[in-house]
Specification:
homodimer, Carbamate kinase, about 400 residues, VC0802-like, alpha/beta, 18 strands
């Protein structure tokens, strides 16, 4: 008998019929003898509906109260799923964040789990019940309701699996697993059977929206094996696991892209110590996250400093840079709000030379100009003109994963 | 400086604009220097929407989980009102039943409040905040969410006012107060300025849906002065208070009616000890509440036994009676599903003779036949053919309250 934590996303519980479908899946697993803790998200669209109400109320709604508001989304789903399970003859009980209890810090809207008291869940499991837990929510030390931020239900599930030393954590979603690239852009994209935590982290942070990045970090830290799979089929999904030796045989496990990038360049700034701090201090203070940064010193003692920010923050970031450009001695500011980032990810890059070179060559062969390059141990990213993003993804997928290469 | 508990019903917080309106009212009261605890219901229609989801899920949904589900209605409203208050510059904080904490028994769907720990509310008030509390909900000893039943937010407000020794409890609703009769039936109906708890109890239980009956019982027991008034105007409403000597000067304070009555008669039953128990035992077991009961023995040793039940329970009750009629020796069962109850209520009945006689005379004068009569200390009710209900109400209102008589 195993203890399995299952998590069902908003699409999986999007209406009454789908909740019945989830109940049937859960009841079947339970009938096979496993102990089950089921974490659910709000019904698809519900969190946005609630945030819309808050925005209608006030453009700058109080964060604590917003968490009280949106936490109702998951509360509705746990109640409905527990009702469906009991109706299906499967004993069940729902718990909210404060009942479990899932303790967090007090960072409303983006709280972090600090501890989980699993005694109440353990007692319910011992009594033969399926335990349905509201994802996304917790309580701080003062019993205030907190939420974990978008996609937080993944983190709830993984944290529960870690706290309860579960044998596995299954993430049910509306896709069949993690793909080598976005199938909408790349007809050859195929499902990965296995992927390492580190690769998944790079894929998650690069825009593959299958798993929330914090949940993967959590799974890696506590060694929780994840299984990302579809709620609507019975096929195996993608297992996200500890790195295995054979994984390095594959150069690239995925090609991802992110259209949400805008580029700003400070032209010919005198290159002096503290320059970067003076540029990025005010941007960080404005809570804008900078993605890529490139600085290239010339022989004449000046440098071009280029960086990218999310498109939504572009105007604000530009305002901050322009306010300081003269002080910094720059001759001007150049911008391009229409760029995209394309990345390849793979453990194989660590041990195989020439992966980046092969990437640049493939892009050059179809005439795509590379504007910026950034690399990490298992990832290489380039910024290109936004209009080339589909082509770039397809070309790179063909080059590294196209002909049946890669981890299938 | 006073401590006031205010309660706003579902219509008062029915949409974003109305919640802003409530916030403005609350902020204005706060600006006058009062400490405020504000109890809110779910937005109009929301509880029914949630119960509809549960019913779609399962015709016999689990009671514990239904409470988890519907408690979200009030949770949404407290968050939105707290957001609106802070946006209006009025410091505020929301609390749910488990945060306050409002302890109840474990009778899901109709829980009773056992105690209230007001320390957290007290601290928030001391910090200068308006405290917004979710009505209708509490927690049992095992931290399960409970609800108090329909209209339970009134009870939450009164219980909080009692626990905190508030100076008053204001019930805001979509009518201007308690009326001498239903203005839709009775154009002469007028708002009462003051009414005793006992009169309000009779009016509430007889179909005047302004206040939930348990909240009035609670207010009476703990001496909490109530003020029922409109959310949408600034006019004084109706004060529900301890009985005052002058109140008995008025014979009748209100005329009410209830169309939700169906009548069943067991004809010529042999009159023997235990008859009533044998008739009403099975009906009580079926959880059907019987309203009026009349038994009249004849000289021939038989009796006609007549009683009324809610229309929705009529078929079930009839089935139970018919199943037993032969055993009981009745010659037959007569029914009338189309009757209504009309009542007059007033403290004055206690000390003034002839009130009932005047009532019967007024009805006889317009040719309305009285089918059943039932009386209590401060109330006289009659059952009449349903088609006469408007006429009966108007005639009785004219007779007792029409010409500027009564407590205005």
């Amino acid at each position: 008998m195993s203890l399995i934590v299952q998590k069902y996303g908003g699409t999986s519980v999007g209406d009454v019929a789908r909740i019945h479908n989830v109940a049937a899946r859960v009841a079947a697993c339970r009938a096979r003898g496993d102990d089950l803790v089921v974490v659910v998200s709000a019904m698809a669209g519900e969190t946005n509906r609630l945030l819309g109400l808050a925005a209608e109320m006030c453009s700058d709604a109080d964060e604590r109260e917003k968490d009280v508001l949106v936490a109702t989304g998951e509360q509705v789903t746990v109640a409905l799923l527990a009702i469906a399970l009991k109706a299906a003859g499967c004993p069940a009980v729902s718990f909210l964040g404060h009942q479990v209890r899932i303790a967090t810090d007090s960072a409303f809207g983006k709280a972090r789990i600090t501890s989980i008291d699993d005694s109440r869940i353990g007692a319910a499991l011992a009594a033969g019940k399926v335990v349905v837990v509201a994802g996304f929510q917790g309580v701080d030390a003062d019993d205030n309701i907190t939420t974990l931020g978008r996609g937080g239900s993944d983190t709830s599930a993984v944290a529960l699996a870690a706290a309860m030393h579960a044998d596995g954590c299954e993430i049910y979603t509306d896709v069949e697993g993690v793909f080598t690239s976005d199938p909408r852009l790349c007809p050859n994209a195929r499902k990965l059977d296995r992927i390492s935590y580190d690769e998944m982290l790079e894929l998650a942070s690069l825009g593959a929206k299958v798993l929330q990045i914090r949940s993967v970090e959590f799974a890696k830290r506590y060694g929780v094996p994840l299984h990302v799979r579809s709620t609507f089929t019975d096929t195996e999904g993608t297992r996200v696991v500890e790195e295995e030796a054979s994984m390095e045989d594959v150069l690239v496990s995925g090609v991802t892209y992110d259209r949400d990038e805008a580029k700003i360049t400070l032209v010919r700034v005198p290159d002096q110590p503290g320059l970067a701090a003076r540029v990025f201090g005010p941007i960080a203070d404005a809570n804008i996250s900078v993605d890529m940064i490139i600085q290239n010193a010339s022989a004449d003692g000046t440098t071009d400093l280029t960086f990218t920010v999310p498109k939504a923050d572009f105007r604000r970031a530009l305002g901050l840079v322009e306010a300081h450009a003269r002080d910094l001695g720059a001759t001007g500011v150049r911008t391009d709000a229409d760029v995209a980032k394309v990345s390849i990810v793979g453990l194989g890059m660590r041990s195989h030379a020439g992966v980046a070179a092969k990437m640049f060559r493939a892009l050059a062969d179809v005439g795509i100009n590379i504007q910026m390059i950034s690399t990490s141990e298992i990832k290489t990213s380039v910024v290109v003109d936004a209009k080339y993003v589909e082509l770039a993804v397809r070309v790179l997928h063909d080059a590294f994963l196209g002909g049946g290469e890669g981890r299938g």
